[in-house]
Design goal:
alpha/beta; 6 strands; methyl indole-3-acetate esterase activity; 3-stranded parallel β-sheet; 3-stranded antiparallel β-sheet; AB hydrolase-1 domain-containing protein; Rossmann fold
Amino acid sequence: VILVGHSLGGFNLSYTMERFPHKIAVAVFVTASMPLSGTTPSESMNEIVAIIGTLEDSTFYYANGRENPATSFKFGSHFWKHFMSQNSPSWDTTLSESLVKRCPVWQEPLLYTAKNYGSVTRVYIVAKDDKLIVEELQRKMIAENPPQT
């Protein structure tokens, strides 16, 4: 199986690599979050936010009360327009924004291990104009965690 993840889909791709490494021939990261072995999803997300500076008008939801970690979030309108669909025509942005739903926040404890996640052959494709996984972060992930090809 060849799996492909784009943007924040790198988290799902990485999770699948950790859980089912023996079933994956190659994992292709297309301008996607590609974590280091020995890290967690939240550490990778924190790195993205640290580089872009903000999630702007995105909203976090706390189904278990504010004293507990957020359970989901939704990208805000401004964030969506400027970080997720900045190169799209306005009508596509409007349509895609109307389809945005809450995303669950990773709750399951997960550590990407060298034994599983690190054993899968990886390919990384860089996009120079991405505003969420900026080129600087893409190059940093590649340098710290070089893909095989």
